[in-house]
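Exercise 7. Predict the structure of Transposase from Croceicoccus esteveae.
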Amino acid sequence: MVISERQGTQAKEDGKRKTYKKPDEQYRWMDGILAETGGEWCLGKRSLADTILCVLTRWNE
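Solution. The predicted structure, encoded as tokens:
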């Protein structure tokens, strides 16, 4: 089976979209938590969770 360049490009885009779908849902969930706690820290005060979230957010960009 031969895959055209267009099909290959479409497959890459589909893969990207699927790869980022779950993290995007989780980031939206975290945005909700941050909004509930005043928007600054995950647990209402600075914690290790905030450091990890910062790293993960940068990876998603």
